[in-house]
Task: structure prediction
Amino acid sequence: MSRPRTAVAATIARLRTQIERAYPADAKLPNEQQLAAELKVSRSTIREALGTLAAEGLVERRWGSGTFVAPPQDSARLSMATIRSYRDRVEASGHAVTLASATCVERDLPEPASAALGLPKGTRGWQVERSFAVDSTPSAIMAEYMPPTVRDVHLDPSPMLSIESDLYATLNAHIPGIVAHTQTDFEAVSVDEQYAEALGIEVGAPVLRATQITTSGRGEVLAYGVTLNRTDVVRLRISR
Result:
């Protein structure tokens, strides 16, 4: 059985900070017992936290030798093991993320978005479209759609125009702790003329399209999003 999620999440954060500040690439980490004593958590919590960091590509677990800091990757590993922003996922693998462009408009929601959000066709809502670069190379274009209100609270997604904020932080700022789940479907598609130039690739080049639905603990659909990812810049890793 998994450890309590808050304990594991806190341990992951502490280990990530410790590794990034104190351990160079290929350095060996203390063993699980030493880390558990240092961080005052159980060995099971340490083991689960290291498993997540390994899935993210930050560390490598070498059988019979121990856990080592992974060398830098040419492309970023986009781990889907936890609910985290695009920036946090990419930066966890040692790469720099910048926001190349961002727009936030209130509009009639496109039919796939209104259907996913459970709203009548033509309902007005929010569209936030952002493009990202990894190590200065265009990497992804993300369009996210939100209803105008959630639980009678009017949403203001304008903070997402900054790299310092994201969908999850914005929703949780309106209603603390409301984000509980995300479901993401992936499909390989050819990029069309509308997005090829922004991604810096040829029309028809393959990209990975991620369609994501974010929900609350009550099952309310909070957001619907579509992301086009360049697979030569980021690599997807799913850990179960």
